[in-house]
């Protein structure tokens, strides 16, 4: 058997065996249910870790026991995102039902571009998309699962460009008016990347000012549009945000929709983070007006905990994606097939090869239902509010905002050495260095992973961003642990 593995000719039985042993490693190492006392990460600097791992590739294959040991080492040196003390990104642990679906989909190793190669998964994607379209108020719309929110935002920009300049698909942008896009100054950087990739140019992405809470100011959007028009440019795309990356702010969609309707501009909503609140009756009001958008992006792999990647792009206009993106490849999308070719959905995608991400969300939904999702979301929101209340007024902690709209709680920790001092420029410069120093201690010890960042457009130096998600299910003790660890590691910062 070892010789067959070496030569790449392992039998079906041995393939099943290595998968079973791999799953055993995940269980043994506690990947799926980490103990709270275990480290979130065993950190090594890149060069040291490079020396600890057998990274070289050679002519001869390894024996199964050696392969499994390499896998065990990979687990040991990786960040445990399912750990309750992983608070570093806008995602966390995986939903176990989604993970089970991912295993099944990966094993079947199919592509979802045509019905003939993925009959079940094409129908699953269609069913999930229609359910989510109804949920967001796009009942007659269309959509697709995309490889992440950045690509979903780019889908919105492509459709908006096609609507504004239909000839751009065949003739390009030469000779056309300069297209201009608008996005919140607190919005995601993918809008600028999309403008670069689509030939619009990053200088033609105009940042719109936000208020103190991080929400786009409608009056400033009007000013930006009017300025572009006065310069002979063509406004074509507004990217609003429901749940900004840092502050978790929700733009006023009703007012922005009115403006876009007035000027004939495509309104896209980046709801990658905050879109999950649509599943909670208690919190869905944050997304009021999203049904008036032309398109939106939502990432269930973020707050909801679907395994990476699981991202949706939705649009109001049925058929537009196909008209915009179709290349009519005759070796895939033949028009004389023996079944209903409308289920060959791949031609509306920018990709050819596409994973069956919809199955992960579908199985999660089947297992939990709307009520199960709502309970998880409400718990994540309640836990974040509890954390805010615990640090509010506590010595050394200072909130960036008094109120937050999502599970993002942003705050500074002022070490004892800097308390009761004049808060001048020198003091704030020292504060700028506090969060990175505390994070280094947390990472080296492996006790907690939490993000920090500045907001230069608002004149704010480095502060911590704490977020909760649906998985692992947050407890009040987990919330207390975070501020206690920051307090402990920041006690002697100078």
Automatic annotation (TrEMBL):
<dbReference type="GO" id="GO:0030170">
    <property type="term" value="F:pyridoxal phosphate binding"/>
</dbReference>
<dbReference type="InterPro" id="IPR015424">
    <property type="entry name" value="PyrdxlP-dep_Trfase"/>
</dbReference>
<dbReference type="GO" id="GO:0019752">
    <property type="term" value="P:carboxylic acid metabolic process"/>
</dbReference>
<dbReference type="Pfam" id="PF00282">
    <property type="entry name" value="Pyridoxal_deC"/>
</dbReference>
<comment type="similarity">
    <text>Belongs to the group II decarboxylase family.</text>
</comment>
<comment type="subunit">
    <text>Homodimer.</text>
</comment>
<dbReference type="InterPro" id="IPR002129">
    <property type="entry name" value="PyrdxlP-dep_de-COase"/>
</dbReference>
<feature type="modified residue" description="N6-(pyridoxal phosphate)lysine">
    <location>
        <position position="302"/>
    </location>
</feature>
<dbReference type="GO" id="GO:0016831">
    <property type="term" value="F:carboxy-lyase activity"/>
</dbReference>
<dbReference type="GO" id="GO:0005737">
    <property type="term" value="C:cytoplasm"/>
</dbReference>
<dbReference type="InterPro" id="IPR015421">
    <property type="entry name" value="PyrdxlP-dep_Trfase_major"/>
</dbReference>
<keyword id="KW-0663">Pyridoxal phosphate</keyword>
<protein>
    <submittedName>
        <fullName>Uncharacterized protein</fullName>
    </submittedName>
</protein>
<keyword id="KW-0456">Lyase</keyword>
<keyword id="KW-0210">Decarboxylase</keyword>
């Amino acid at each position: 058997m070892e010789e067959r593995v070496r030569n790449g000719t392992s039998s079906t039985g041995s393939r099943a065996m290595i998968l079973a042993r791999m799953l055993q490693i995940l269980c043994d190492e506690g990947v799926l249910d980490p103990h709270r006392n275990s480290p979130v990460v065993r950190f090594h600097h890149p060069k040291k870790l490079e020396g600890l791992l057998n990274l070289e590739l050679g002519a001869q294959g390894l024996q199964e026991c050696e392969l499994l040991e390499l896998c065990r080492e990979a687990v040991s040196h990786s960040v445990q995102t399912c750990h309750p003390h992983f608070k570093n990104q806008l995602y966390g642990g995986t939903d176990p039902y989604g993970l089970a679906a991912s295993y099944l989909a990966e094993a079947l190793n199919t592509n979802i571009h045509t019905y003939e190669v993925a009959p079940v998964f094409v129908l699953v994607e269609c069913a999930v998309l229609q359910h989510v379209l109804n949920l967001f108020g796009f009942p007659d719309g269309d959509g697709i699962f995309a490889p992440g929110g950045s690509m979903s935002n780019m889908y919105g920009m492509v459709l908006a460009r096609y609507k504004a300049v239909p000839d751009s698909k065949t003739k390009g942008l030469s000779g056309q008016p300069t297209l201009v896009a608008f996005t919140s100054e607190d919005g995601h950087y993918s809008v600028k990347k999309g403008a670069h990739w689509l030939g619009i140019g990053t200088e033609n992405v105009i940042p719109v000012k936000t208020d103190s809470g991080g929400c786009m100011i409608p009056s400033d959007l009007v000013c930006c549009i009017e300025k572009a028009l006065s310069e002979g440019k063509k406004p074509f795309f507004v990217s609003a945000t429901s749940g900004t990356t840092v502050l978790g702010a929700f733009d006023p969609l009703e007012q922005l929709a009115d403006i876009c309707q007035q000027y004939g501009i495509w309104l896209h909503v980046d709801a990658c983070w905050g879109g999950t609140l649509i599943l909670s009756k208690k919190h869905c009001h944050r997304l009021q007006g999203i049904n008036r958008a032309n398109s939106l992006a939502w990432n269930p792999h973020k707050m909801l905990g679907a395994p990476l990647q699981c991202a949706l792009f939705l649009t109001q206009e049925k058929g537009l994606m196909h008209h915009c993106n179709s290349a009519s490849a005759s070796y895939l999308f033949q028009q004389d097939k023996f079944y209903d070719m409308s289920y060959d959905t791949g031609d509306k995608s920018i990709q050819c090869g596409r994973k069956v991400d919809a199955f992960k969300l579908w199985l999660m939904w089947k297992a939990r239902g709307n009520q199960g999702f709502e309970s998880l979301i409400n718990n994540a929101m309640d836990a974040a509010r509890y954390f805010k209340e615990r640090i509010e007024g506590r010595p050394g902690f200072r909130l960036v905002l008094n109120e937050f709209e999502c599970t993002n709680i942003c705050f500074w920790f002022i070490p004892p050495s800097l308390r009761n001092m004049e808060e001048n420029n020198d003091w704030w410069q020292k504060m700028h260095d506090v969060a990175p120093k505390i994070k280094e201690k947390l990472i080296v010890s492996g006790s907690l992973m939490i993000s920090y960042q500045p907001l230069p457009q608002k004149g704010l130096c480095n502060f911590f961003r704490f977020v909760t998600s649906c998985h692992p299910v947050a407890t009040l003790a987990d919330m207390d642990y975070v501020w206690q660890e920051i307090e402990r590691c920041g006690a002697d910062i100078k």
